[in-house]
Structures are given as structure tokens and as C-alpha cells.
Amino acid sequence: MYKIISKRELNPTVTMMDVEAPLVARKAQPGQFIILRVDEDGERIPLTVAGCDKEKGTVKIIFQIVGASTELLNHKNEGDFIQDFVGPLGRATRTEGLKKVAIVGGGVGCAIALPVAQKLHELGCEVHSIIGFRSKDLLILEDEFKAASDKLIIMTDDGSYGEQGVVTVPLKRLIEEGEQYDEVIAIGPLIMMKFVTLTTKPYNIKTIVSMNPIMIDGTGMCGGCRLTVGGKTKFACVDGPEFDGFEVDFDEAMSRGVMYRTFEQEQREHVCNLFKKEVQ
Amino acid sequence: MPNMSLKKNPMPVQDPVERGRNFKEVALGYDEATALDEAARCLNCKNMPCVSGCPVNVHIPEFIAKVREMDFEGAYQVINQSSSLPAVCGRVCPQETQCESKCVRGIKGEAVGIGRLERFVADWHNSHCTEAPKIPEQNGHKVAVVGSGPSGLTCAGDLAKLGYKVTVYEALHLAGGVLVYGIPEFRLPKTIVQKEVDTLKALGVDVETNVVIGRTLTVDELFEMGYEAVFIGSGAGLPRFMNIPGESLKGVYSANEFLTRSNLMKAYKPDAATPIMHARKVAVVGGGNVAMDAARTALRMGAEKVYIVYRRSLEELPARKEEVEHAMEEGIEFRLLNNPTRIIGFENPDDRRDPRNGFVTGMECIQMELGEPDASGRRSPVEVPGSEFVLDVDCVIIAIGTSPNPLIKSTTEGLEVNRKGGIVVEEATGLTSREGVYAGGDAVTGAATVILAMGAGKTAAKAIDEYLSAK
């Protein structure tokens, strides 16, 4: 069992937790993920590590409430326990030799992009961050990004904060203005990552994307997280989760990602109804 | 007087039609009278050929003699000297190619039902004996075991009995390895696996779940933590695919994924949190035990039609005969000498948001015929030109084997692996290229059987004991 040390709501649909898991905290690096099960009958859900405190032995997770399991997780409070918590899984973000990087985050993906930005910033790399949200009330981690970036551009779909528009607009602008990036790192919804790669491709700027496919064991056993990368079958859990964005078959990943959509919606409604009943 | 019947007592089983719709165990086990009758068929041969056929050398005639004397607990103790998992082996061992293949009674008639008797004895013990095993006197040495599948549990059990302090590290949230994620409930009830794990814990073995060796901790760190030897029994690895078009469509599973969802995550239960596709028509590609397990699981989840698609003929099917027979009885249709060429998915060109897009609608196969024997001695299948046809299915499960997991290899310096990625070991001891590091089971051999993995765990336990005693 793994204790929730702190819990904070970042916006109405996104929650941050620090979970006591000393062995994971000791090793976790930006780019890696964990798998947790909320309770004894829970499903295994992968979440990318949003930070860790090696001394306190805690791992930070930030999650969006999208389904039954994240709904259940969000009902846990400080001092409560999570049944299972295993990691760190996957490969860490490669940071060696990078001098100037553009980090593009979308929605809750920003939670994963932040530790990457922080690490690069600490290593003395010039970091330009572009983070996008649907609207101002969904904005998260602004101060943290400000502290870790040499340049920060915030985008909202509705223009309620920062600039109005999608993240690829300022990315293209910066490139056009002559910013020479060693790498662009994009973390967010599949459709966003796809369009980031379409934006950077004409300039041939190496673009890394972080994939978050459906997974079960996360250790290289089930093969559920397979992706087509450069025409070959790759497994996000052991070969990734980060891949060369130019090689990833995004359309296939998007199709596979919604395989259980109906089931997931029903499950979430079921869980929500249970909690409603409890309240009544 | 021995019972000279040429036939072994049949195993009582659930009715095929009924069992095809439930997850309860198929084989029901001998009752006492049947066990006594079967035990009386053993001739108690002096040279004990059966024992040489057992990878862990269970003293077979000795335990059967105890059954005959109706000393069932005594019989259990005899088996337990050699095997840590009698209730498991009695169910999933391929006895017909091991102990029973050497049985003298098999020369004229059928071999003694050794596996069925082993199961009877183990089940008798589990339902009658509540006494916790005594914790052996500790010798002060610590050993780490990586993986809680058959090889790891065996190695841990043997070392614990010798007084070692053993910690088993398991990557998943539940101990048992393939016994819990791979082999279905109807062939091996999970309460039995749990019982075997509990027995080990009662012997003083610590089981740490949620620790991935190669990620959470490395093999070198285990030594730093004070373990003097490490046994790697991390199991088979990533599933292999056929590399034909359409393998990423929705509704295509590896057998590992399908079985893990169903067995470990209990997705077959209506209230499970983990989803699984309840398909109408399913094709399982492959002919091993895993393929049979996947096909029979799909059937039990409500599929109208389940096919086994295998590119060779019945004779070459690698699955246990009993599993094939059970599958056939249950109505699984064997499409032999057929090889998949592509998987076809739904495509609505007018509506990209059509929710049916990307789901499997069929699998194209080509007929095969058997040509000359290949290197393995099996006749290799050759395509019959122009014989393509489409099998109407909405789910495809690929069960054509696995390739070793790279995690431990890539994080353990000096650990030698072979061309296929299996860990290289000295056969007689299980010793790897690293001092104090031993390995066994599928991590070494690639996908094989539970009992072979147990044999490897046993060999390594003995070698570790010799290594640490001499230190």
C-alpha cells in the first residue's frame, strides 16, 4: 500500500498527488512513468511521473479525471492509500548534448512536460516552452513553467488567457523568426503531437513525442501498448514512451486509443453514480 | 495384486457444452476410490523409469505406494520433497511426454495416471491439512529471486527449506507469474496458486510485489543490499507478431494481453474494471497451449465461434493432447494448414468518425500443404498458390510465442545472452556469466512449460546452496 502524502486540485479536472513510494522516487527520471491500481479490484493505469522528492521518498503524479479509475483515485485524500504503485517504467528523456529546446505541452500533458523542462533548465539548456489549454480555468503549472523556461508562451483555444490559438502557431513563428532548436519535445494529446511533427518536419527539427497508449503490465509482457514507429512494431513500455515523432503512426495510435471508449464511459458513469448515492 | 486394467481411470470432467460457458475448472479430480484403484495399477518398478522422466524427479512409485496405503498426507510429503507446487503440476504438467511416457504400463495399454494421482494427493493435503509448515533453521544467508513464476517459486521454496532467507521480487501486483496471468482459471484455479504462494510465505519467504528488477532495482543493487546470490526467473518476454498487414487494428490481441486481461485482471467478470472485447467470432493464431487457453477463454466469454488457425497439421500441433481434445469437445474449430496473410478492418471512407472504423472484420488466410521436414524435423508448410480465403471474425488473438524481455539484460553489466536474447547459463547449475547470478525458466529457454521452469529453479537452488556453502 502506498500513502498519499499530499493532494491538490490544479483545476476542476486535474489533480496533483504526492505518493509515498521511496524505491520509485529514488530512481524516477523525467519521461518515465508508473502504473498504479487504486484498489484491490482496480485496473492498472499508467501515469507519467510529474516529479519526485528523493529525500522524502515521494513521487508526484498529476492526472486528469477522464474515467472510472481516475475518478476513484480523485476520491482518495491525503493520508489514504493506493493499492499498488510500481515503477519507474519506460526510458527516461534523453537530455545529453541539448543546448536549445522547444517544449510543447498540451493540457494535462504539461504536467509531464514540466519535469523535462526543469531538468533541461538545470542542465543549462535554453528552454522555450509553449503550453496550451482549452481555456484559462484549465491552465495549470504556469509559475513552475515560468521558473523553468527562458521563454514561455501560453495559448488558449478561446483566447481567455495568453494568446488565442493552437500551440503550433507560436512554434512555427519562433522557428520562422530564426530560433535554432536542437530538438522539439511535444507532450500532449495525440492530435496535438501529430500537428507539432507536421509543423517541425519541413524544417527537419528533431521532434520527440511522449506516447501514452493503453497498457496493462507496463513491463514488456502483454504487447497491448504496441505502436508502429518507422514501420516497425514498438512497445511504449520498454522501447518508449518517447519516440521520434516523425516516425510514429499517429492515426493508428489514435484509432487504438479509443478501442474501449464505450466501456470506459459506462464505467465512469457507474462510478459517478456510486459516489452520488454516497453523498445522498 | 496390482490392478491390471489396460486403461487408466478417466478423469471426471465438466460437461463440454456446460463448461464452454463457465470459468470453473474443467477437470474435477479423482475421488478417493478412483485414486486407490488407479494407484493399484502402479507396478512399483525397481528401476523407476517414471522418475527419470520428471524434470524435478518426484519419487513417483514411493508416493503412489503411500496412496495405496491410504496415507495421503504421507504421499504429499513424498512429493513435496521434490516439488514445491504439487497441486499446480498435477494440473498443468505434460505428463504424457514426461513421467507417464516412461511408465512400463504404457508399453501395453495406458500409463498409470501419475499426474491425476499427484493432483488428488495435493488437493487432499490442501483440504485436510491446516498445519503451517515449520520454518527451517536459518543459516544466515540471503538470496534474491527475480520473478514469482514457477521457476522463481521453486527456487525460493527449495532454498527456504535449506534455511536461506529468500526474498522474491515480482513486477506485477500479484505473485504467481504465468500461473496467474497466463493459465486460465478453468485449467488452474487461482486459489490453488495462492495456496502455494502462502505455503512459501509460511516457510519464511518474503514476496515483494510491484518491484521491477531492471527498473525499480537492478541486479547489482540487490547485491549491494546484502543478497549473496540472485536467481533470475523473469519469464518469457514480449509477444511476437506475424508482421502482416492489419495487426494494429482494434480487436487484434497478443495472447499475453488477452489472457492477462482475462486472468490477472479478471476482465471476464461482468463487473471488472479492466475492459476486454467480447467478440462474436474469434480466430486464434498458433497451435500451442497458450493458443488453446486463449481460444477456450474467448469461448467462455460468449463467442459464437472460435477458430484455431495453425499453419501445420494436427500431428505437428505443439499443444498438449488433452488440451486439444478438450478444445475440440467444447466446439473450437480447428482450421489446420491455414496461414494468415492479412487482417481486414472496417473502413467507412465517407465518415472518418464512424465508430466502427478500425475494428477487425475478417482475416485473410492462405491454405498450406506440408513439404519436406525442416531443421526441427517437422514438415514445413508451403503455401498453395491462389488458395486465399477470408475468415469472418471480429477478433484475432496471436499466440505465436514471445521474445525475451530486454530489461534485465540491458541493466546488468556482464550478463551474457544468446542470439535470441535468452540468458546464457551453464546447464548443470543455471549459473550465468556473472558470479552469484543464476537464471532459469523461460528467461533462459524462451517459452516452455511450467515443469521445465520448475526443474531449472530446482537446479539453480541446489547450485546456489553449493556456491554459498563453499563461500
Please tag this protein with its features.
heterodimer, A: 280 residues, seven-stranded antiparallel β-sheet, seven-stranded mixed β-sheet, 16 strands, B: 471 residues, alpha/beta, 17 helices
Overall geometric form of chain B: globular
Structural class by helix and strand composition of chain B: alpha/beta
Mind telling me the C-alpha Rg of chain B?
23 Å
Total DSSP E strands of chain B: 16
Overall, the morphology of chain A is globular
Q: Helix- and strand-based class of chain A?
A: alpha/beta
What is the rounded distance between the termini of chain A? Answer: 30 Å
Query: Helix amount of chain B, in percent?
Result: 25-40%
User: What is the spatial order of strands in the main beta sheet of chain B?
Assistant: 3-2-1-4-16
- As a percent range, the share of strand residues of chain B is 15-25%
Q: Residue-averaged pLDDT of chain A, rounded? A: 93
The termini of chain B sit apart by: 52 Å
Note the beta-strand portion of chain A: 25-35%
Largest interface: A-B, 41 and 43 residues
Poorly predicted parts of chain A: none
Describe this structure in words.
The complex is a heterodimer of chains A (280) and B (471). Chain A has 280 residues and is α/β, with parallel strands linked by helices. Chain A is built from nine helices and 16 strands. Chain A has helices at 22-27, 68-74, 110-122, 142-148, 168-176, 190-200, 236-239, 250-257, 261-279, and strands spanning 2-11, 14-20, 33-37, 45-53, 58-64, 81-82, 84-89, 100-106, 126-133, 151-156, 163-164, 183-187, 207-210, 226-229, 232-235, 242-244. The radius of gyration of chain A is 18 Å and the shape is globular. The mean pLDDT of chain B is 93. Chain B starts with 15 loop residues before the first helix and ends with a helix. Chain B is α/β, with parallel strands linked by helices and 471 residues long. In chain B, helix 14 links the parallel strand 8 and strand 9. Chain B is built from 17 helices and 16 strands. In chain B, the strands form four sheets. In chain B, strands 3-2-1-4-16 form a five-stranded parallel beta sheet. A five-stranded parallel beta sheet of chain B has the order 6-14-7-8-9. In chain B, strands 10, 11, 12 and 13 form a four-stranded antiparallel beta sheet that branches. The longest helix of chain B is centred in the last third of the chain and has 21 residues, at 450-470. In chain B, helix 5 packs across helix 7 and helix 12 packs across helix 13.
